[in-house]
Amino acid sequence: MNSRRSSYSNRNEVDTSRLPGTVTKMVPQKHDGSRLSLYVDDKFFMGLFRKVIEKHEVDEGTLLTKQLLKQLQADEYRQEIKSYFYRILSRRDHSRTELFRKGRQKGYSDEALEIALDELEQLDLIDDAAFARQFAESKRRINRWGPEKIRAALREKGVPDTDAETAAHTAFDEVDLDKTLEHLVLKRKARFLRESDPMKRRKKVYDYLVRKGYRPNSVMQCIDHLMSTLDE
Fold first, then answer.
1. How far apart, in whole angstroms, are the C-alpha atoms of residue 46 and residue 75?
2. Using alpha carbons only, how large is the chain's radius of gyration in Å?
3. In this structure, are residues 16 and 69 in contact, taking their beta carbons and an 8 Å threshold?
């Protein structure tokens, strides 16, 4: 396991010398309704997710052995990872690699993370291709990024090259690229016109559009038109 300890490791260290023992009470936790506090022989023993308790059919009167505890802790660990991912995904979509990196930072083991991510993929809660399409469309529409910048950002997020390439291409399928570049240049018209040298101004426009992620050949094809637009 990763050398950093997850919250699970700190939270579920239990005194196994008390086992075997009988579960005498299960109480909902005040700050997390998805979890229950288990009491063994009338003394608090540990907290567990309801789903884990239900899976193993633990109830008042259940004999808690060391073997059963080991099974509970293994499922508890996996459930904690999934719950962590659910919270992240409730805020925005993420690629599989992004989630894996965040899980590692929390100290979860690589093996457990891969298992949890596989389960989320089976539930269609993570889908790199769909994530890439949404990301590309958002960056094109809101940030006016070009396909190269979108592709690079998706790769940085761990999206497979094929999905990144397809998403970046699809985002511009019905886009009038000439009008898009013209819009970007006119938004910065005053800034570009501060440069009095025509050749330097041309280079500034070219460099700006390439930094925004538009392909150099696409920019060069309409650079003359863009420069004439600035002079109007």
1. 14
2. 27
3. yes
Distance from C-alpha of 10 to C-alpha of 25, rounded to nearest angstrom: 23
Say how far apart CA 192 and CA 231 lie, in whole Å: 10
d(CA 130, CA 133): 5
- The rounded distance, in Å, linking the Cα atoms of 25 and 36 is 10
Neighbouring residues of 216: CB distance < 8 A, sequence distance ≥ 6: 206, 210
Show the DSSP H helices in the chain as ranges: 7-11, 50-55, 66-91, 96-105, 110-122, 128-141, 147-156, 161-170, 177-187, 189-193, 198-211, 216-231
Please report, in angstroms and rounded to a whole number, the separation of the first and last CA atoms in the chain.
64
Cα(225)–Cα(180) distance, integer angstroms: 13
**CA–CA dist 6, 4 (Å, integer):** 7
Both tokens of 218, joined, read 């696409």
Residues contacting 133, CB < 8 A, separation 6+: 167, 170, 171
DSSP symbol at 4 = S
For the segment 55-99, what is each residue's pLDDT rounded down to a tens digit?
A: 999 999 999 999 999 999 999 999 999 999 999 999 999 999 999
Dig out the tokens for 69 from the structure. 């505890």
The values of phi and psi at residue 27, to 5°, are: -125, 130
* pTM exceeds cut of 0.90: no
What pLDDT was estimated at residue 13?
Answer: 75
**CB burial readout 152-185, b (16+ within 10 A) else e:** ebbbebbbbeebbbbbbeebbeeeebeebbbebb
